[in-house]
Amino acid sequence: MNLCRKAVVFCHPVTMTTKYSQYYNRSLIPSHYAHAKNMSIQELVSYYEDKKQLNLFNVFFVVLCTIIILENLLVLIAVCRNKKFHSAMFFFIGNLAFSDLLAGSAYIANIFLSGSRTFELVPVQWFIREGTVFIALAASVFSLLAIAIERYIAITKVKVYGATKTCRMFLLIGACWVTSILLGGLPIIGWNCINNLPECSAVLPLYSKKYILFVVTIFSLILLSIVILYVRIYLIVRSSHQEATNAPAYNLLKTVTIVLGVFIMCWLPAFTILLLDSSCKIHVCPVLSKASIFFSFATLNSALNPVIYTLRSKDMRKEFLRVLCCWGILQSGRPADRCMIPLKSSSSMEHCTNKHEHQSTPIIMQDCTTCV
Q: Which cysteine pairs make disulfide bonds (predicted)?
């Protein structure tokens, strides 16, 4: 009975009215999905009824997103509760952690609002569902770019830890979120394919292919910018240690390789599928029906960012253990007040922040260059 009722709703014709008046039309989403998957309404209903169960892939995805939320929450707590981390670089790390936490939360919400539940949404709800994911992912990527910009400025400018650093930090963080919200909100503002089915994406059936191509272009430019910045950082550091040991340069190269390698590994599959989506006809590229697998690799980036950008700091690792100790997870019979003992040593990243607070020579001549 429920299946028949859905089929009747899906067969309701979509009238050609103004785009914004369609935002609450419940028959619009089914018609777009039927077109995107090259199915009839009856086939579409049967397809999503069969996928109603939470499969193993979705269970794994939910577990992964829960890990993303918990580990990034741990980063935020560590940065907030320890005054030692109240410096610009750690605030950038905290911003990255917050964007990844939001991404993990948006992924979980997307899973439970997908499948057959998609057809219970009106277009404006669908735009919010997908737009939140785009905003979170964009904020994570822009945060990586902001960190790269900050590190590049830090090693090339004199007195980089002066009064202007706080202003630059807030400007970069603010620009990150404003740009992300704008990028993710463009479809609900009007850049979508409502009333224009031939221009619709096969992966995201209410999004315009031109918008998908625009997003891929923006993310590709960000990737290129990060590569250029970190290559420049490495070249500057290498040239400044010509007479010294090569260990700092090798350590920096290792860090840069990890950052760029993980970023490319996680995002390249998603970029590829989106690029195919913007250029292929629906029935020509059957791989588009497996897009969720490709996007799962992009999700891994949010899980690995805390590992790359925080666990390389010895003090951050110690703070993680202290937080877990206070939660009773790693207490191991130790007194509770031991959890609040101040840290006695500083990591290379923290030394880099404190040592050059009033520095009058470029940071590249110091040993702190490995804390990128």
A: 193-200, 280-285
Residues with Cβ within 8 Å of 180's Cβ and at least 6 positions away in sequence, in order, are 99, 135, 136, 138, 139, 142
Q: 279-333 pLDDT, tens per residue?
A: 887 677 778 877 878 887 888 888 887 787 666 767 777 777 787 776 655 554 4
For the domain covering 25-370, report its CATH number. Answer: 1.20.1070.10
Picking from 95, 15, 103, the residue whose alpha carbon sits closest to that of residue 66 is 103
Give 36's contacts (C-beta < 8 A, 6+ positions apart). 200, 201, 202, 203, 205, 282
- If you write DSSP's letter for every residue of 291-345 in order, what string do you get? HHHHHHHHHHHHHHHHHHHHTTSHHHHHHHHHHHHHTTSS-TT--GGGGGPPP--
Q: What confidence tens digit (pLDDT) does each residue in 124-173 have?
A: 999 999 999 889 888 888 888 888 888 788 777 644 444 556 787 888 89
- pTM of the full predicted structure? 0.77
Contact 343, 315 (CB under 8 A): yes
Q: What Cα–Cα distance (Å) separates residue 182 from each residue in 108, 128, 143, 226?
A: 22, 13, 15, 21
- Which residue type sits at 130? E
Exposed/middle/buried for 30, CB within 10 Å: 0-12, 13-18, 19+? buried
